[in-house]
Design brief:
This protein is an alpha+beta fold and 294 residues long. 35% of the residues lie in helices and 23% in strands.
Length: 294
Amino acid sequence: MKDKTMKTVEGLNEEKKDYEFRLLDADEIECRVGQGGNNNATWCSLLLYKDARCDMKRLDEKFGIYGWQRKHEMIANNLYCTVSIYKEGIGWISKQDVGVPSNTESIKGQSSDAFKRACFCLGVGRELYTAPKIFIRLALNEYNKNGRLQTTFHVGYIGYTNRKVSQLIIQDQNNVVRYYYGMTSQEVDKFLQKKVDNGYSEPAPQSKVDESLLEQKNYAYPQLEQAQLSEEVDKIWSEYTELQVLEDFAMKCAIRKMQLSNTKEDLLAIYNAYPQFQQNKEFVQKLTENKNRL
């Protein structure tokens, strides 16, 4: 395993300045369901975050265990955390922020949240603020009998440009790609076919689930290419329920509908029907191409 303090981050096109922290790797980022994802909803949004252990590890990495300190204090009945770092020739530099209690552990959650927010102020993981809005399509079989979402998600890959998120792949517990950003479907397929040796999390070996989906894709995708009506695309979508969790299946359906559209109003309806792709460069490019065609 390479020393992460020495490695470069893929996609970064500028030198890391002295005051900047190393950018977060895929395996250091957590995913949490934001909106949706309950009562058998057909979609959910995801939020990316780092935990307090990641912050402590990053501070140790950059300043050493003797080069930083934290303290907590109550101010107007709110718990604040101050994180201080030592810079040679300058002295101690401090950043402070307030925490919000968690639903499960009020005081501990508030303490941890205040610490993480103070670390954000120092710059740890600040690049997460540049992540796109993430929407995931869900199938009914991803819920238990109580309508609770059972699927979990993780960051499979992340790339940066100028310290901003420029590429992103979200996978579920079966390593099926559920969302991608800043990449074409061909680039995503290429990622899945290779091992990434840059500190990023790697996809697991192909499972029976992957093989089943691949077989269905071999039937469904040629049918999409032959579809002559938007209604036929909807029928193909409805028939292959297991493929509905795949980001590229939804993308191919959307693009085929664009190609079959006859008015700009049709294109607007397609745009509104796929909010998860509205920041995807391939989706926007195809939309523009077909808009210019009409």
